Hints:
The structure is a single chain. This protein has 293 residues and is α/β, with parallel strands linked by helices. The protein has 2 domains: 7-120 and 272-284, Rossmann fold (3-Layer(aba) Sandwich), CATH 3.40.50.10330; 129-262, Probable inorganic polyphosphate/atp-NAD kinase, domain 2 (Tumour Suppressor Smad4), CATH 2.60.200. The chain has helices at 20-32, 41-47, 57-63, 73-83, 109-117, 190-193, 276-284; strands spanning 7-12, 36-40, 53-55, 66-71, 90-94, 104-105, 121-135, 138-145, 148-152, 160-166, 169-176, 178-182, 205-211, 221-224, 229-235, 240-243, 247-250, 256-271. Strands 3-2-1-4-5-6 form a 6-stranded parallel beta sheet, with helices on both faces. β2, α2 (41-47) and β3 form a beta-alpha-beta unit.
Amino acid sequence: MQNAFRTIALVGKYQSQGIAEPLAAIAAFLKDGGYNVLIERDTAENIGLAAHATASIDELGAGADLAVVVGGDGTMLSVARLVAPHGVPLVGVNQGRLGFMTDIALKDTQKALKAILEGEYDAEERNILQGTVTRQGQVLLDTLALNDVVVSRGAIGGMIELTVSIDDKFVYNQRADGLIIATPTGSTAYALSANGPILHPNLPAIVLVPVAPHALSNRPIVLSDDCEVKMTLTRGRDAGAHFDGQAHFSLIDRDRITVRRSQHRIRLLHPRGYDYFRMLREKLHWSALPPAH
């Protein structure tokens, strides 16, 4: 495993206050270790690291052996969606609190990276979704989502109405504020806040979670990730389709949103001993004690 990674891409949430110094330190650490450092161009230009080799996200995917993402889970989602077709593994460094995917604390970055670069890591494969929006038979958007695909009402509209089918079998007509189709990774995101179940990341599954359904009998459904879900908007003023909350598309009546498992996968590298359930305990405060009075 040693020296399996030679060119390391570095991407940061450059809008975050105080991120320039740790990014520069990581770049210097990698360079001193003899690795080729390739910094995402917008990150480099906005925090003064243009002296290093830079590249666009697409170029990073094609030219890097590993991507180190510094920020939060939102930054990781953005990068993961773009590098997924290239199969580049990802390491997440969290600038603030523990993240579901960015699990390395900033203070532990150099120690964790040294071990990972020497082959001491736990690897995890995550499935992602392929989502398309079709209007009158024409595909208008085709993109990836690591967390979820959401069809929802707009800011000025009321409930939307959707016809939902699974593998071309009619399931229901639904009136709701929205419908979430989430991967196991996304089951701890928006789907969780809408009372969906937590799916272990190794499950070959997706979950459909209605958002404030008109019929209280509409409940989350866990499906095999071999399924293809189709949603047709039958009524929905100002409705939209959202992919990981980062790619957005305005919908009109009769638009169809199709969601299936992508042929691509995400590979996350964690420090040795990574424990998914420990992460859940810490992130969701399952073991937190009530405050003292």
